[in-house]
Write a structure and sequence with these properties.
mainly alpha; Helix Hairpins; 2 helices; 0% strand
């Protein structure tokens, strides 16, 4: 049986460093995912505008009789593409909102952990991108 006097705890400063490193990795991951979401949304919005413009010109040409009836099926395909883009942009906006909430939650965890530590441990840096509210 091990003696109770043989138990040693780790230095709180070392625990703080481990926490900061872990939270920093999470912060960087959230930032990377947010950047991926934003890049996808930006590209999709660009394609959306082009598709909407093409659809508008095609509808106008069809109504004026300067486009064949065959092209009317293209209008349906463009309309479906526009609707898909709108759904995806909405989904990406929700995902980006969730990333912001998670990021805020991470800041809250860091602040809670930071406020309970001793003054000597507060000298360590904050995780990348974290901020005080």
């Amino acid at each position: 049986m091990a003696s109770i006097f043989g138990f040693r705890s780790r230095d709180p400063a070392r625990d703080r460093q481990a926490d900061i490193a872990r939270l920093d990795r999470l912060a960087k991951l959230f930032e990377q995912i947010s950047a991926e979401i934003e890049a996808e949304r930006t590209g999709l919005e660009s394609r959306y505008r082009k598709t909407a413009t093409n659809a508008a010109f095609l509808v106008e040409a069809t109504e004026n009789g300067s486009a064949s009836q065959k092209r009317s099926s293209e209008v349906s395909a463009l309309t479906e593409s526009i609707l898909n883009c709108e759904r995806r942009i909405a989904a990406l906006s929700r995902q980006n909102g969730m990333m912001k909430e998670l990021r805020h939650s991470l800041d809250m965890v860091f602040d809670e952990n930071g406020s309970s530590d001793s003054a000597a441990a507060v000298d360590f840096g904050r995780p990348a991108g974290t901020r005080r509210a």
